[in-house]
Design a protein that fits this description.
Organism: Deinococcus aerolatus
CATH architecture of the largest domain: Orthogonal Bundle
Number of domains: 2
Strand order of the largest sheet: 1-2-3-4-6-5
GO molecular function: protein serine/threonine kinase activity
CATH class of the largest domain: Mainly Alpha
Largest sheet: 6 strands, antiparallel
Pfam family, one: Pkinase
Distance between the termini: 44 Å
Binding site for ATP: 40
Number of helices: 8
CATH superfamily of the largest domain: Transferase(Phosphotransferase) domain 1
CATH topology of the largest domain: Transferase(Phosphotransferase), domain 1
InterPro entries: Kinase-like_dom_sf, Prot_kinase_dom, Protein_kinase_ATP_BS, Ser/Thr_kinase_AS
Length: 250
């Protein structure tokens, strides 16, 4: 059913679809004052899922994070109204590869902004749990926002049964085992993106350590260690390390 043109919340009008998730459709929208925003429309049976995202996202406020502004309902479907992230998803923005060779400064800015968002999220006691290219929206200059907090939750949150979060190619070993996740699991996903930027394809962190002359290669290896206890858990430290190794001031 087409929802464009309909109004939710306090005068927020849906304009056009701009993205799709496993349980929702995201619309570009404008509020009553004409300011752009995003509206995530869930399937009717996903009320509890939408409520969980709302409870974990409300109150967040960071320029590198797309966060929830409010909630509502539309034709029996739960909706969340959030800040808008402009640009393209990461893989669409960086079509020339390897990104760290052909578009180095912009890609490093993207990683720095991603780590800014994660440092804030982790300081709030939350982990994202699904770091992947589709959840990072990038502008032409490399500026980026982290989006889609539908799998986010408290750090080291335990469930009655093992629960696997994330997307396989970027999933930490502990996430694939369904263990409680901390900040180091999010930073594993950052490590996979860093490896993609270095090599031009997703590396296999379970194989033998690859050699590459890029000074960021050792950091990639550190972020993707199989033992979570040997990985960094501080996003701000990783950001500083990336910029120092690259001799950049962003």
């Amino acid at each position: 059913m087409a929802l464009a043109g309909q109004v939710v919340g306090d005068g927020v009008r849906l304009i056009r679809p701009i993205g799709r998730g496993s349980h929702s459709l995201v619309y570009f929208a404008v509020d009553a004052q004409g300011q752009p925003c995003a509206v995530k429309v869930f399937l009717p049976e996903m009320q509890d899922f939408a409520e969980r995202e709302y409870q974990h996202s409300r109150g967040l406020d960071h320029p590198r994070l797309a966060y929830v502004l409010g909630r509502g309902a539309l034709e029996g479907r739960p909706v969340l109204i959030s800040t808008l992230a402009r640009g393209e998803v990461l893989f669409s923005r960086y079509t020339r590869r390897p990104a760290l060779r052909v578009d180095r400064r912009a890609f490093l800015l993207t990683l720095a902004h991603l780590l800014d968002a994660l440092a804030y999220l982790h300081s709030c006691g939350l982990v994202h749990r699904d770091i992947k290219p589709e959840n990072i929206v990038v502008e032409p200059d490399g500026s980026a926002k982290l989006v889609d907090l539908d799998l986010s939750g408290p750090a080291l949150e335990a469930f009655p049964v093992p629960t696997r979060f994330g997307t396989a190619a970027f999933q930490s070993p502990e996430a694939s085992r369904g263990e409680p996740l901390g900040p180091e699991a999010d930073l594993y996903g950052v490590g996979m993106l860093l490896g993609w930027g270095i090599f031009g394809a997703l590396p296999d962190p379970t194989g033998s350590a690859p050699y590459h002359p890029d000074p960021l290669c050792p950091l990639y290896l550190t972020l993707t260690r199989q033992d979570r206890g040997q990985r960094p858990a501080d996003a701000a430290w990783v950001r500083e390390r990336i910029l120092k190794l690259s001799n950049l001031n962003i």
